[in-house]
Design brief:
The complex is a heterodimer of chains A (about 500) and B (about 325).
Chain A lengths: L4 E10 L2 E11 L4 E6 L5 H8 L10 E4 L2 E3 L13 E4 L11 H12 L7 H14 L15 H15 L8 E5 L7 H16 L3 E5 L3 H7 L2 E6 L2 E7 L5 H9 L17 E9 L4 E8 L3 E6 L5 H9 L6 E6 L2 E4 L5 H6 L2 E4 L3 H5 L6 H6 L7 E2 L2 E2 L1 H14 L16 H13 L5 E5 L7 H16 L3 E5 L3 H7 L2 E6 L2 E7 L5 H8 L8
Helix pairs in contact in A: 2-3, 2-4, 4-5, 13-14, 15-16
Chain B lengths: L2 H23 L7 H10 L1 H15 L7 H18 L4 H25 L4 H20 L4 E2 L3 H8 L2 E2 L2 E2 L1 H18 L1 H11 L1 H5 L5 H27 L1 E2 L8 H11 L10 H20 L5 H25 L5
Antiparallel strand pairs in B: 1-4, 2-3
Helix pairs in contact in B: 1-13, 3-8, 3-11, 3-12, 3-13, 4-5, 4-6, 4-11, 5-6, 5-11, 7-11, 8-9, 12-13, 12-14
The chains are: A alpha/beta (about 500), B mainly alpha (about 325).
Chain lengths: ~500, ~325
């Protein structure tokens, strides 16, 4: 049987550095093929070569459904060749309807003067119905849940391929990290339905459990090379982690529990449009996790405590002073040594087009203003020390932030706040899009800070991360704290069960 | 020589090429000290305007009203000094304050009501132009006090009229603030990542307002210098400086400090563009070519600066 996709000898060099080095793999018709690897392992570059965004080095061979495809792939041609992409941001227009989003390629491509909306509506309804998806084609994308949006994006990708005359290959680039489990199940059902119709799916994810669940085979990239392709019906989690990391993973030790630590921050009656009054205390040197299902309100807490979003009520007592949260501003927060690492790295956390050194020392610039001028040499030297301390790779702070992989960019931005020795560090999904190996380094950096007395609040929907990192975890539901887990209860499964309202005591 | 070094000095090389080219095409006419001395002084208002623009541009805002502010400042001096008989110094101070006020009005709508700067400053540009026409009856006011004329073009230093040294002074101040103070870095972050800046506690609104007010004040200084060069207040021609000033600001961002708006790049660009226009004019090319030249220069400058930044942007993950 001819492979749906066969890739041989794919290399890509960026200014002397090999992002991809002789990559080869095959995807069979009707197969779900997993693609895993660190940030910086070459996954993103591979996807961009397939999409025609990057030109590969000479010598690469790609065949799709037995046809040789000239490399570099002509930009915009991938769809005609039977390839379709669903990126993490889904590429939907939120202000337009499901119908318009589903049919946009057809409507704009066909060069018609008149759009027959009746026929379009029927085509959209039929496409959704074919996959048993109960979404109103007239609904606005913005009004749908994230899970439903992902389904629409995948249906669209499948529909777009019907004109290519091939069964098609859909590349799903990390579609799941924001989805609650129930939505992931529906997404997986749709993927199974899609491959049952003869199409193939390349499924990219950091989540090994998901890879084991949905894929037939998985290819692991490491440092731009194929570390191995495994049959996921037989592979174990540990085997895959070994392939990703290339060495056995060492978990950071949990701080020895020494009873209740002195309080660093006390939050009382925190309210906003979603939270109905949350009270909790974070101890000095403690890592307090908060989690819950999407919409439970936990994801609001970090931004409210920092003043990034406005609370409607509540106070935070830090260092003996009670500050009203309805009047909190980022500037006031920073002056009380509260720091926030937002989830959205590209938009809210760092500026990709500026050097890592400038990003790192933005909150601490005044210190480098000596004798009437900014000591730029000293600034870069101090940034280099920070890069070394927090194991940033490459350790060159004069590079632009966008030149670093996701994990290393996050270490740069963590270093930016740890440098001012915060009393309270607020983390919002701190390892989103960060690979397994870098995660350990991010955790190590957080541990270094707590050893110096920094209190850490970690808002995360990654239960494994909470279990690895936190001393205690608070579970939110419907705007309130409903459970607190600590000690032996701090496992991924306990946390998940608590989020879904499972009985923790009985578990 | 690395690509970076080439890029840093490409603009100066291009300017040199233009000078040599016209020097050969116009022997004994173009390459004279008088020609350049006049150009350095007469383009001082345009250069100041380009410097005014790079301040809000660095912080991510456009100031399209800066050209109109030039005419407003000239006209305030004309009306106060000539029509109302004020001494020249208070007239100049009121003109500068007027420029700052324009910036404050821009900031009020841009920052407080979150209206895009392009729309706000396009509106205020028209408002100010109308105001100037009303103040002046759309005619030039001549006879400005010799005190100002003396301070601007009454003497020379190293063979160039004083006007040019106001450009250097503002250039040095901006260079220092943008490159050597924490404020300059904050400005850059406000321009490149507004949310990032807000979330480290930078008063983004204050910084943007400050930039717009500074831009208004420097544009007003440009108008003061212009009035001093002419000895008169011209209600129209300040507007013609806006486009070449934008072209110079963007062209300057491709060089000296590639990828960032910077004062030396902007100043060199102003003189680069005016060398081209002066040369073309000496070759007897008609006036309308100036507009084509300036428009093409802006388009080319923006494209180049996009290429400089775009190429440096690499993939995040």
């Amino acid at each position: 049987m001819t492979a749906a996709l066969s890739l041989r000898n794919l290399s890509k060099t960026f200014g002397g550095a090999k992002a991809l080095d002789g990559v080869a793999f095959e995807v069979a018709p009707g197969e779900v093929h997993g693609l895993l690897g660190h940030n910086g392992s070459g996954k993103s570059t591979l996807v961009k070569v397939l999409a025609g965004v990057h030109d590969p080095d000479p010598g690469a061979h790609l065949t799709l459904n037995g046809r040789d495809v000239p490399m570099p792939m002509p930009a915009g041609e991938f769809r005609a060749l039977g390839l379709s992409f669903v990126h993490q941001n889904l590429g939907l227009v939120p202000s337009l309807s499901v119908l318009e989003n589903l049919r946009v390629a057809d409507i704009t491509a066909m060069n018609r003067v008149h759009i027959n909306w009746g026929a379009e509506r029927a085509a959209a309804a039929e496409a959704l119905q074919r996959f048993g998806i109960a979404i109103d084609p007239a609904a606005r994308i913005a009004d749908l849940s994230l899970g439903d949006r992902a389904l629409v994006a995948i249906v669209r990708a499948f529909e777009e391929l019907r004109h290519s005359g091939t069964a098609g290959i859909i590349v799903l680039d990390e579609p799941t990290p924001f989805l609650p489990r129930a939505s992931v199940d529906r997404l997986f059902a749709l993927i199974r339905d899609v491959v049952a119709r003869g199409a193939s799916v390349i499924f990219i994810s950091h989540d090994i459990d998901e890879i084991l669940e949905i894929t037939h085979r998985a290819t692991v990239l490491r440092d731009g090379r194929v570390a191995g392709t495994v049959d996921t019906s037989r592979a174990t989690r540990e085997q895959i982690i070994d392939l990703i990391v290339g060495h056995a993973l060492v978990k950071t030790g949990r701080n020895a529990s020494t009873g209740a630590p002195a309080a660093a921050a006390v939050v009382r009656a925190l309210r906003d449009h979603r939270l109905t009054g949350a009270d909790f205390t974070i101890g000095k040197g403690e890592v307090l996790g908060i989690t819950g299902l999407i919409g439970s309100g936990f994801e609001r807490v970090a931004g409210l405590l920092f003043g990034a979003d406005r609370a409607t009520g509540g106070t935070i007592e830090i260092d003996g002073v009670a500050l009203p949260l309805a009047e909190m501003t980022p500037r006031a927060a920073v002056s009380h040594k509260i720091a926030l690492l937002p989830a959205d790295r590209n938009y809210a956390s760092g500026v990709g087009s500026l050097p890592a050194a400038d990003n790192m020392l933005l909150p601490d610039l005044a210190r480098f203003f000596r004798r009437g001028r900014l000591d730029r040499g000293g600034l870069v030297r101090h940034a280099a020390q920070l890069a070394h301390k927090y194991e940033v790779r490459p350790p060159d702070p004069t590079l632009k932030l966008s030149a670093f992989s996701g994990g290393n960019a996050q270490k740069v931005l963590l270093a930016k706040w740890l440098n001012i020795a915060p009393r309270l560090l607020l983390l919002d999904e701190p390892t989103q899009g960060v690979d397994v190996g870098s995660r350990e380094q991010v955790y190590a950096a957080i541990r270094k800070a707590t050893a110096h007395g920094t209190a850490v609040l970690c808002a995360s929907s990654d239960h494994e991360q909470l279990a690895d990192l936190c001393d205690r975890v608070l579970i939110f539901a419907r705007g309130r704290i409903v459970a607190e887990l600590g000690g032996a209860e701090l496992t991924k499964d306990h946390i998940a069960a608590a989020c879904y309202g499972g009985s923790v005591e009985a578990a | 020589m690395t690509l970076k070094t080439v890029e840093r000095f490409a603009l100066i090389a291009a300017w040199a090429a233009v000078i040599v080219g016209f020097g050969i095409a116009l022997p004994g006419v173009f390459l004279t000290w008088t020609n350049f001395s006049v150009m350095f002084a007469s383009q001082a208002p345009a250069a100041l305007l380009a410097l005014a623009l790079i301040v809000p541009l660095t912080a991510g805002d456009y100031d399209l009203s800066a050209g109109a502010t030039v005419t407003l400042a000239s006209m305030i001096i004309g009306v106060l000094n000539v029509n109302l008989g004020w001494p020249i110094l208070p007239a100049v101070l009121v003109a500068l304050a007027g420029g700052a006020l324009v910036g404050a009005v821009n900031a009020f709508f841009i920052v407080l009501f979150r209206i895009p700067s392009l729309v706000v400053t396009l509106s205020t540009a028209s408002l100010i132009t109308g105001l100037v026409q009303w103040m002046s009856n759309s005619s030039t006011i001549g006879g400005i006090a010799p005190g100002l004329v003396d301070a601007v073009s009454g003497g020379q230093l190293f063979g160039i009229a004083y006007a040019f040294y106001y450009v250097l002074l503002i250039g040095i101040v901006l260079w220092y603030v943008l490159e050597y103070t924490p404020l300059g870095r904050r400005l850059l972050f406000v321009g490149r990542g507004r949310e990032v800046a807000r979330l480290v506690g930078i008063g983004v609104g204050t910084v943007r307002a400050g930039c717009l007010i500074t831009s208004g004040a420097i544009a007003a200084l440009s108008g003061v210098i212009y009035a001093g060069l002419l000895g008169a207040a011209d209600p129209v021609s300040g507007l013609n400086f806006l486009l070449p000033a934008f072209a110079a600001a963007f062209l300057g961002a491709t060089s000296i400090v590639p990828g960032r708006f910077n004062p030396w790049g902007a100043i060199i660009s102003v003189y680069f563009l005016s060398s081209g226009i002066t040369g073309l004019a000496m070759l007897g090319i008609p006036m309308w070519v100036t507009n084509i030249f300036n428009g093409a220069a802006l388009l080319l400058a923006v494209t180049l600066s996009q290429l400089v930044r775009g190429r440096e942007e690499t993939d995040y993950a």
